[in-house]
Write a structure and sequence with these properties.
- The protein is α/β, with parallel strands linked by helices and 149 residues long.
- The chain has a single domain, classed as Ribonuclease Inhibitor (Leucine-rich repeat, LRR (right-handed beta-alpha superhelix)), CATH 3.80.10.10.
- It has 7 helices and 5 strands, in the order ααβααβαβαβαβ.
- The chain has a 5-stranded parallel beta sheet, with helices on one face.
- Helix 5 packs parallel to helix 6.
- It is globular and about 40 Å long.
- The model has no long low-confidence stretch (mean pLDDT 93).
Length: 149
């Protein structure tokens, strides 16, 4: 199910990425994709976004997605991910990704159209007070969705 992603992680070659590739291979029916603290860069996020775009067979049933603690992804990487993240995702983790308002706005736009979202965690990022206010407004208008800033 995660074949292209597993290949991508193997190509990265770090111990953490190789271990994650191994665990993804063992859990082929898992509907979660947690890629936390793997040292990903903007280019890695762009590559993952391209994989998400191509892998409709598994992304359409993806429930949980996390790139938390990859602090070199940046706005461009998160924007690309949000453009290809499926609407089936219920939980998102983007903690400590060192992202600013451009990525935050892309996240908020995705949230406003998401049909299954239950929870999103985005603390330890660099959102402006104005954007945080927009997230709080979203939270008030959608009380069934847990938004953690």
């Amino acid at each position: 199910m995660f074949h292209k992603l597993i290949d991508f992680l193997k190509e990265k070659g770090t111990t953490k990425c190789l271990n994650k590739a191994l665990s993804l291979g063992k859990n082929s029916f898992d509907r979660s994709l947690h890629l936390r603290n793997l040292g990903f860069t903007t280019q890695d996020a762009l590559d993952i976004a391209a994989i998400l775009k191509k892998e409709d067979s598994f992304t359409s049933t993806l429930n949980s997605f996390s790139l938390s603690y990859n602090n070199q992804i940046g706005d461009k990487g998160i924007i690309a991910i949000m453009n290809h993240l499926p609407m089936s995702v219920k939980e998102i983790g983007l903690v400590g990704c060192d992202i600013n308002d451009p990525a935050g706005k892309a996240i908020l736009e995705w949230m406003q159209t998401a049909t299954s979202l239950h929870m999103i965690c985005m603390e330890q990022n660099k959102f402006s007070n104005s954007l945080k206010k927009d997230f709080h407004t979203f939270k008030k208008e959608n009380p069934s969705i847990l938004v953690i800033l």
